[in-house]
Amino acid sequence: MLMRRILLLFFTSMVMYGCSMSTESDQPVSELAERLLPDNNSSSFVFEKLSSDSDFFELEQAADDRIIIRGNNGVSIARGLNHYLRNYCHKSVSWCGNNLSELPVPLPPIREKVRVTASFPYRYYLNYCTYSYSMAFWDWEQWEKEIDRMALQGINMPLMAVYSQYAVWQNTLRRLNFSEDDIRKFLPGAGYEAWWLMGNLEGFGGPVTPEFIARQTDLQQKMLKRMRELGMKPVFQGFYGMVPNALKEKFPDARIKDQGIWGTYQRPAFLDPTDPLFDKLAAIYYEEQKNLFGEAQFFGGDPFHEGGTSEGINVKLAAQKILQAMRKVNPQAVWVLQGWQHNPVKELMEGVKPGETIILDLMACERPQWGGVKTSMFHKPEGHWNHQWIWCALPNFGGKTGLHGKMSSYASGPVFAKHHPMGKNISGIGTAPEGIGTIPVVYDMVYDMAWRTDSIHIPQWLDNYTYYRYGTEDNNCNKAWKLLSETIYECHNELGGPVESYICARPSDTIQHVSTWGNAVMFYDPMKVVKAWDLLYQSRKRFNHSDTYEYDLTDVTRQVLSDYAKYLHERMVLAFQKKDKERFMEYSGKFLNIIKDEDRLLSTRKEFMLGTWLAEAEKAGGTPEEKRRFVTNAKRLITTWTDTDSDLHDYANKEWSGLLIDFYLPRWEAYVTYKTSLLYGKKLPYPDYSKMEQEWVLTNSTYLSRVNPEGTIAVVEDLYKRYHTEIEQNYQKN
Predict the structure, then answer these.
(1) Cis link prior to 344 (omega < 30° from 0)?
(2) Is the pLDDT of residue 21 over 50?
(3) Is the pLDDT of residue 361 over 70?
(4) Nearest-angstrom CA–CA distance, 91 and 104
(5) 662 DSSP 8-state letter
(6) What is the mean pLDDT of residues 508-520?
(7) Cβ atoms within 10 Å of 29's Cβ, excluding its own
(8) CA-angle at 437, arms to 435 and 440, nearest 5°
(9) Which of 208, 246, 448, 608 is the one with CA 20 to 30 A from 153?
(10) Exposure b/e, 544-564, CB count within 10 A at least 16 = b
(11) CA–CA gap between residue 497 and residue 524 (Å, rounded)
(12) In this model, does residue 280 exceed pLDDT 50?
């Protein structure tokens, strides 16, 4: 015992003087704690790395009352720190507010040593689309915070395939004698990289400047350095055959296949992996990637994703060749494939052996492919053909705003799969959102499942969640979250993503969806969400200065108003059908006002402001012209998506301040004006919504990125007084 204390005192003294007895991974966790914790509280922790065959963390009280957190790598240690902050200090960090203003003094003691082992070796994170819908314009400051959050969740397998590709492809094509102009035509602009890398489009939103390519290269290198220091194993982009269409002119004898159209875009071409040119191009690609970004074990890339054609290609042999090229750069390479719609097809998987690939079951939460549960047209009775796979939640499409989840699935889905004969090769848990920055409760629950062997008891888990999210136990908040978990956070359909807001839809008498593949039909009782709003509201004075509470109160208030807009729309349409001018004007006026009120509410939080997104886009550009181009890309991506009218319009719809008042409101005002003209026999032309949308995208408008000084609580109090009784009475009548 005496020797142990001597060793511990020696170790802590080394930490105090900036030294470390252990490996390199300890220092990044110490630095993470310094960034994260207020008032030099990081000095109260000792981070210690121990070797282990499996991921684990331990918590123990030191003789000098410091908190010792051990683990086998930086990610495990960071997860241990998060465990202590949540369960002992009742503190938390998220995209949507932080509860870290001050830690308890003294720090809560650890009575008995705690040891927690990861239930799966892999904790995956991200989706190609996340980089476009949420991260397209991020800088190092934002990424540093994001990597910290990833480590705290225990994530060790993030997708890092996007930023690097500008320089990799630029250098690769230069070695194939492409002109700089041809290279620029292939590289997309910021915001559209995801669909480029998935083989859906090329060049759109560009060109990009050398300054921007250098920026993204430097950013990717910083990201990878930090991730590796923490013990993460990022997923790189592999070469799977996607090539510029212009390559056909350079190598007319090569088997380069046209891939047709995706949406309104010409897809990149596909180089048959059995053609000799494939090996040559792959060798150049991987050499350039390694020179710029170092070694990797995991490589992504999906031939024929969301379409394309494999006609004339031996898919089984192609799979072998793709993997062989990866394994020339790293003999231990693993191919990471997206389990999405019909991808990956059986023929492709027959070309690789178990252990050579990992399949991401991207939406196992609601549309599982792994074979144990048939819930969708993309269910595969044969599962994942004995290959390793990762159970993923995909809770958001397009970065849409809106409360959404399927808590019963998160709480038990991975455990059920692990004990099912068809799911026995599950090797990880992850999330693959198309957009982030919303619904933090979902991510906490999913990644908690990676560190336990049993299912979550949702009411008990939520009580603990509200405790660490708000910092104080509160009965009203507990009741509110219970109602939310039983309604809007327990989705009953497989479409996925939030129920869309009518406010964001192109105006119509009948609205089933906002985006072509979305859903605007409520599956829950909106009155129960109103009750949850009421319960949260009752605690507003207690949490008047709580960042996390104010975010949640804003989001739930937004949801209540969004749901009520559907009721008002229904009444407005009914009044028109009855030719009741007075009622039509009453309900249409209320509908338009609710858009204005939502805009005012959301202006109190930076997370819900268009100006925040556009400021990021402008900052990312390398020249004045590129700054303007990126702002246009940013506006287009969340509205029209492309530069023509197509099924992609409003795919990434959002209730954001600025977007509500300048984009959605004018569409609805035009609709109301048109309907009013019909009621009074004037017969105005039907509004050209597409023209209005395209004009807004190209308009040089300025949007604030500073929050409304009124403050969240004051605005919500005003809205509650004006709307709560009215909504309750109307829902009860309905």
Answers:
(1) yes
(2) no
(3) yes
(4) 10
(5) I
(6) 97
(7) 28
(8) 110
(9) 608
(10) eebbbbbbbbbbbbbbbbbbb
(11) 14
(12) yes
Query: From CA 685, how far away is CA 676, in angstroms rounded?
Result: 12
Backbone dihedral region of 60: left (phi > 0), alpha (psi from -120 to 50 degrees) or beta? beta
Which residue type, as a one-letter code, is found at position 487? T
Question: Quick one: DSSP state of residue 107?
Answer: P
Length of the chain: 734
Question: pLDDT by residue (tens digit) across 663-692?
Answer: 999 999 999 999 999 999 998 999 999 999
Continuous H helices in 521-657: 526-538, 547-577, 581-602, 610-620, 624-637
* Structure confidence by residue, pLDDT tens digits, 577-626: 999 999 999 999 999 999 999 999 999 999 999 999 999 999 999 999 99
Q: Is the pLDDT of residue 241 over 70?
A: yes
Q: What is the DSSP string of 252-315?
A: TTS-EE---EETTEEPPEEE-TTSHHHHHHHHHHHHHHHHHH---SEEE--TTTTS---TT--H
Label the pairing between strands 334-339 and 67-71. Answer: unpaired
Would you say the C-alpha torsion 236, 241, 245, 246 has a positive or negative sign? Answer: positive
Token output for 450: 């990676």
Would you state the torsion angle of the CA atoms of residues 255, 256, 261, 267, taken in this order, to the nearest 10 degrees? 150
> What is the side-by-side order of every strand in the sheet holding 269-271?
242-243, 269-271, 256-257
pLDDT tens-digit readout, 178-210: 999 999 999 999 999 999 999 999 999 999 999
294 φ, ψ (degrees, to nearest 5): 85, -165
Cross-strand bridge partners of residue 92: 99
> Is pLDDT of 14 > 90?
no
Query: How much is the pTM?
Result: 0.95
Cβ-proximal residues to 85 (8 Å cutoff; 6+ apart), any chain: 91, 92, 93, 100, 103, 468
Q: Report d(CA 460, CA 445) in Å as an integer.
A: 12
What amino acid occupies position 168? V
pLDDT band at 425 (very low <50, low <70, confident <90, very high): very high
Instruction: Tell me, rounded to whole angstroms, the distance of Cα 438 from its chain centroid.
Output: 8
Q: Taking a C-beta distance cutoff of 8 angstroms, is the pair 250, 178 a contact?
A: yes
**Is 368 in contact with 340 (CB distance < 8 Å)?**
no
The order of strands in the sheet holding 45-49 is: 45-49, 67-71, 56-61, 114-117
Q: For the chain, state the CA radius of gyration.
A: 26
172: burial class by Cβ within 10 Å (0-12, 13-18, 19+)? buried
Both tokens of 673, joined, read 């004006």
Burial of 275 (0-12, 13-18, 19+ CB in 10 A): buried
State the Cα–Cα distance between residues 161 and 193, nearest whole angstrom. 10
Bridge partners, residue 236, by sequence: 299
Q: Taking 50 as the threshold, does the pLDDT of residue 232 lie above it?
A: yes
- Please give the distance of CA 279 from its chain centroid, rounded to a whole number: 34
> What's phi and psi for 79, nearest 5 deg?
-65, -35
Angle at 339 between CA 288 and CA 641, to 5 degrees: 75
Contact 162, 145 (CB under 8 A): no
Instruction: Give pLDDT, residue 161.
Output: 84
The whole-number average pLDDT for the span 369-376 is 79
Give the separation between CA 497 and CA 513, rounded to whole angstroms.
12
Residue among 79, 80, 87 nearest 107 (CA): 87
Are the C-beta atoms of residues 371 and 381 closer than 8 Å to each other?
A: yes
Q: What is the pLDDT of residues 149-175, one digit of tens each?
A: 999 999 999 999 899 999 999 999 999
Residue among 125, 37, 108, 25 at smallest CA distance from 71: 25
Cα gap 401→470, rounded to integer Å: 22
188 within 8 A of 201, measured Cβ to Cβ: yes
